[in-house]
Design a protein that fits this description.
The protein is of the alpha/beta class and about 400 residues long. The protein has helices at about 20-30, 70-75, 80-85, 100-110, 140-150, 160-170, 225-230, 255-265, 280-290, 305-310, 325, 340-355, 355-370, 375-390, and strands spanning about 1-5, 35-40, 50-55, 55-60, 95, 115-120, 155-160, 180, 210-215, 240-245, 270-275, 290-295, 315-320, 335. The chain folds into two domains: about 1-185 and about 375-390, Glycogen Phosphorylase B (Rossmann fold); about 210-370, Glycogen Phosphorylase B (Rossmann fold, 3-Layer(aba) Sandwich), CATH 3.40.50.2000. It is built from 14 helices and 14 strands. An eight-stranded mixed β-sheet has the order 3-4-2-1-5-6-7-8, sandwiched between helices. The chain is globular, with a radius of gyration of 21 Å.
């Protein structure tokens, strides 16, 4: 089968291709499939075709300015992206990631008479419905687009049962056409620290109290403010540093300033460190040497970073929301927090920090739990799903 998981026009990391999409493609390629990842060109020097090896190629399509765009600006170029897809060779199946990609790819799949599979990764709150804290309202175009691809796609792959429920309830998807296949985790890259490992080279890594990691874009939805308030509850002499790894989101450029003001108000200037976006190896190194990982998001369809923390043998302190409930096993691999009270979060973090045996047990079981999400096994599930869909 020659399959093309079409990534969203400009979303994701380098070249518009996110971690899940690339690993899905590689897992399928190792099973003998030829896979093209297609994304919007976000810089003039990005080539039309890049061979990623082992049967995977990355294709760039010009759709709008050849530059990074805020997510909110990309949907103006969906038609251009769709036209670019139409000029490609015919594929046996198209899987679209994110709503803009689905709207662009659906008519092409119909013209080619091949199955169209949709993955959402996040779903917009409908206008008029109450928003969860930190959840931004979305454009009418997104709401309509998500409903369209829910109705018209041949199948929907959700990353969690929480996302499956959301796609059915918000978008009107037929439950019989929704399948849950979670992302995997790179168990070789994300692994527990060993005695021979060199810790990250940073001035705060040698702190007597160590550091807690938060890996997420800086935007209200991810809840960095809660992580800072929670650690501020701990006694200064015993307080670990907080390392925040992630870019500032284009759509929430002023949020960094809000967080900086909060740091000063709480007297946390010496304890909070922003290190920006990290390469995958550098992020893995930060994770395996952290005391704990915090995921204080208001909502998550899955929570890949929590799974990466678990694979690294690190306890995870996370919001009890969405797909995080399927990644973190409460009191076994970490703790799921049912409120957003910084005092409660700080008390639970203190329990992890002050009990070495507890921290070791949580980290050990977390690694065992993460092995259920090996990318090879996920690839086999995807391949079986694609074959059955194509045959039907």
């Amino acid at each position: 089968m020659h399959t093309s998981p079409a990534s969203a026009p400009g979303a994701g990391d380098a070249g518009g291709m996110n971690v899940v999409e690339r690993h899905q493609a590689q897992a399928l390629a190792r099973l003998g499939y030829r896979v093209d990842l297609v994304t919007r060109r976000s810089a003039p020097d990005q080539p039309d075709v890049t061979d990623l090896g082992d049967g995977v190629r990355l294709l760039h399509i010009t759709a709008g300015p050849e530059a990074d765009l805020a997510k909110s600006a990309i949907d103006a170029h969906i038609d251009e992206f769709s036209a670019g897809l139409a000029r490609l060779e015919r594929y046996d199946l198209i899987q679209s990631h994110h709503w803009m990609s689905g709207v662009a790819a659906l008519p092409i799949a119909r013209a080619w008479a091949v199955p169209h599979v949709q993955s959402y990764h996040s779903v917009a709150a409908h206008p008029g419905r109450p928003l969860a804290d930190g959840e931004p309202p979305e454009s009418d175009a997104r709401v309509a687009g998500e409903a369209l691809i829910a109705r018209e796609s041949d199948a929907i792959v959700a990353v969690s049962t929480a996302e499956a429920r959301t796609v059915v309830e918000r978008c009107g998807a037929d439950p019989d056409r929704v399948t849950v296949i979670p992302p995997g985790v790179d168990l070789e890259m994300f692994r527990p620290a060993q005695r021979t490992d060199q810790p990250p080279a940073c001035p705060w890594c040698g702190s007597r109290a160590g550091y807690v990691l938060m890996a997420a874009r800086l935007q209200p939805l991810k809840g960095a403010d809660l992580a800072i308030r929670a650690l501020a509850q701990l006694p200064a002499l015993l307080r670990p540093d907080l390392v925040i790894a992630g870019d500032v989101s284009h759509d929430f450029a002023d949020y960094r300033d809000q967080v900086e003001r909060l740091i000063d108000e709480l007297g946390m200037r010496d304890h909070v460190h922003f290190v920006g976006a990290q390469s995958r190896p550098d992020l893995a190194r930060l994770m395996r040497h952290a005391i704990a990982l915090m995921v204080p998001s208001h909502s998550e369809t899955f929570g890949l970073v929590a799974l990466e923390g678990a694979a690294s043998g690190v306890p995870v302190l996370a919001s009890s929301t969405g797909g995080l409930r399927e990644v973190v096993v409460h009191e076994e691999t970490g703790y799921l927090m049912h409120d957003r009270d910084p005092v409660t979060w700080g008390r639970t973090m203190g329990r992890i920090l002050n009990d070495n045996r507890l921290r070791s047990r949580l980290g050990t079981i977390a690694r065992v739990h993460a092995r259920r999400f090996d990318w090879h096994d996920i690839g086999v599930r995807l391949a079986d799903f694609y074959e059955r869909l194509a045959a039907s």
